Amino acid sequence: MAGRGDRVALRAVTPSFEQFYETERLRIGRAVALSLGDGDLAAEATDEAFTRAYERWDSISSGNPAGWIYRVAMNWALSVLRRHRRRGPGPLYEMAVGTAGVTDPDVGEPSVRAALAELDPKHRSVVVCRHLLGWSVADTAAALHLREGTVKSRLSRANQILQSNLHHLRPEGKS
């Protein structure tokens, strides 16, 4: 009897999935890493989400596959964190919710990463989707299962916090 992995391995990779994977893997992975504040957990979550996307490519490719993958990665990672939290704090949980943030130099300036880490996950996810991924309010709302108004209000609040925490990065003379 073939298992799930065997079915995936036997199926030919469609060129559209290969192309999508090559162009979006790093971008989505970075977005998940910034949202979670843990690069290792984000990498695992992104891999899991892309595996699930591959298995369902025919049904998700015509919609917003990047949003689908981001949402699956975040849900998977948050489930992992909840399981670890129930067992009591362990190394993974401490790394994910502690002060250690994303250390990937390609993700951005350390002070920006630190400021993002200060946001609660609901606000951080909206900021990452809008500013890092460049998604519209509608796409962000769809990916996060929120109403557009909720996205706008969370983004507004997050932007206020970020502006306050990152005022030192503003060019001289700008307020």
Biggest pleated sheet: none
Question: In total, how many beta strands?
Answer: 0
The total of helices stands at 10
Based on Cα principal axes, name the global outline.
globular
CATH architecture assignment: Up-down Bundle
What are the low-pLDDT stretches, counting only 5+ consecutive residues below 50?
88-103
Number of domains: 1
| CA radius of gyration | 17 Å
β-sheet strand percentage: under 5%
Strand-and-helix sequence, N→C?
A: HHHHHHHHHH
CATH fold naming: Butyryl-CoA Dehydrogenase, subunit A, domain 3
Structural class, by secondary structure, is mainly alpha
Roughly how much helix do the residues carry, as a percent range? over 70%
**Mean model confidence by pLDDT:** 79
CATH classification, class level: Mainly Alpha
Distance between the termini: 65 Å
Characterize the structure shown:
The model is unreliable at about 90-105 (pLDDT under 50). The chain contains ten helices and no strands. The protein has about 180 residues and is mainly alpha-helical. The radius of gyration is 17 Å and the shape is globular.
Task: Characterize this entry briefly.
It is built from 10 helices and no strands. By secondary structure, it is mainly α. The chain has a single domain, classed as Up-down Bundle (Butyryl-CoA Dehydrogenase, subunit A, domain 3), CATH 1.20.140.
Question: Any chance you could write out the topology, listing elements then pairs?
Answer:
Layout: H1 4-10, H2 15-36, H3 39-55, H4 57-60, H5 65-87, H6 91-97, H7 110-118, H8 121-132, H9 137-144, H10 148-165
Helix pairs in contact: 2-3, 2-5, 2-8, 3-5, 5-9, 8-9, 8-10, 9-10
